[in-house]
Amino acid sequence: MQRFLVITGIVLLALGLLWPWLQKMGLFRLPGDIVIEKENFRFYFPIATSIIISIILSLILWFTRK
User: Fold this and answer.
1) Helical H runs in 26-46?
2) Mean per-residue pLDDT for 33-45?
3) Phi, psi torsion values for 29, nearest 5 degrees
4) Nearest to residue 29, comparing CAs of 16, 47, 15, 14?
5) Which residues contact 64 (CB under 8 A, 6 or more apart)?
6) What is the DSSP string of 3-25?
7) Is the pLDDT of residue 57 over 90?
8) Residue 34 three-state SS
9) How many angstroms separate the most distant Cα atoms in the chain?
10) Which of 1, 22, 54, 60 is 20 to 30 A (C-alpha) from 15?
11) Residues of the chain with pLDDT > 90: what percent?
């Protein structure tokens, strides 16, 4: 459990530090992401981004367990 919490903290720290770079890269504006914009309303549902992040996290956890 301690190892999991340390790895989670390191990943969150890395994401926080890389956040400006990730936004410039266009990670959160993929073709599979749903964006609905109206006058006073904006709905954003990142389906493709969630799938990519899930795959990356699964690979990282798979490599750390081996």
Assistant:
1) none
2) 91
3) -135, 50
4) 47
5) 7
6) HHHHHHHHHHHHHHHHHHHHHHH
7) no
8) strand
9) 50
10) 1
11) 30
